[in-house]
């Protein structure tokens, strides 16, 4: 045996004992990482949120990309000592999302069932492209997709599949729209059509990328003006479509949003659906962020008209705290996936006679190998119950209310949207009357909060008024947020503001 053969045979000799050993070493480290960030734990450490990247503080506890690269550039040695040390570093220097001060970027902390779901996925190592290798997880995805889709659509045929993220859901929904309305395009491409896509002015660049990828070109994307609250202006939509038609375009896709990224606004779905119908367009709703209010009996009315959509993207990994990533594309008729996507590749998808359902899930996608992310949502829903998920959403809305009322009583705070529709609150903070550069204050304070390791909050320019200053965008999306943590944030902003000099 060569040396490396010997090493391999040792390593794989007893996988059970080996995993046992690794898990045993890892378990206390993982629990300590969470305990450090959990206010209910005796080992909670204030300021345990984690990494802050700025040259001035690199020398201290935190480090920037270069020193991170240096620290993690290890000589692979084939033993577990270095591995354990490295795991310690990874835990130590990462942002600790279990901390209630993590109020950034829409997703929230993971939770115990999320860790269990990920662990199971890893142990099973299933590829959910075909049924033969994924009998259980494919059925689970099919079932949970139907159950989820039926919360939105009133059809018996509703269902959904997971995609690796919003961008893939984007592209897939656009492709589906074209393939269903213009089936010839599957074989012949765009032919003589100059297809046109309609979305709001501040939409993500990925829509343009999708249009490029589908051979429509970025000039086929028409950006419709928005109202002050960030919703799509329906009159402008009608005008833009009419103009595009006059210019020889074939409108086929309209994108609306349930919970915009900056303001959290919900479009007028009923009105947009009518425009879509009148112009033979596919009506897509991007509910990646705000779609999950469907679980809350008090909030779900904001989705009125969403049942008229042709497709709906929603991410359990955001508002529902399912472990990253878990993103569904839901449709009123599940067979639309196969109709628009399948190439009938018999070497891979053997099909199963008499089955009404397709369990070869990849046949309904543009990809092949897939991670069975649906399992994580399935387990979380099972564990918390529908009521538990509703409480999670309602709790988050109550926290938003509490914060909004708190800052409304303080003249130094100014809300950008008086009545937030979703879980983010956008506001300015002006510590003193003589301060003028609000962008600078916003950036200074959010940096100070992060440096202290207590709060990570985002800031943003105003998508409807690009020349106005940047404001705070704080996302209250976590079941562990308490009155104390919100008061703490309020006080921390004031304290940092007091230290600010222009
Ligand atoms: C986060 C977000 C996305 C992107 O979803 P990913 O699955 O994270 O790629 C899309 N649309 C909206 C409105 C979002 O908030
Ligand atoms: C498309 O993808 C981008 C990037 O992930 C995202 O921000 C955008 O809003 C997505 N839209 C949908 C429909 O998911
Ligand atoms: C839909 O609109 C939202 C918000 O304007 C945007 O984030 C998203 O990328 C758009 N998606 C598509 C597929 O047009
Ligand atoms: C669902 O779509 C398929 C084709 O994609 C079609 O054959 C079927 O009739 C549709 N069902 C309903 C209820 O619309």
TrEMBL record:
The modification N6-(pyridoxal phosphate)lysine is found at residue 318. InterPro entries: PyrdxlP-dep_de-COase, PyrdxlP-dep_Trfase, PyrdxlP-dep_Trfase_major. Keywords: Decarboxylase, Lyase, Pyridoxal phosphate. The keyword Hydrolase does not apply. PANTHER family: CYSTEINE SULFINIC ACID DECARBOXYLASE, GLUTAMATE DECARBOXYLASE-RELATED. Belongs to the group II decarboxylase family. GO terms for molecular function: carboxy-lyase activity; pyridoxal phosphate binding. This is Glutamate decarboxylase. GO terms for cellular component: cytoplasm. Its cofactor is pyridoxal 5'-phosphate. The keyword Lyase applies. Coiled coil: none annotated. It comes from the Eukaryota. One of its GO terms (biological process) is carboxylic acid metabolic process.
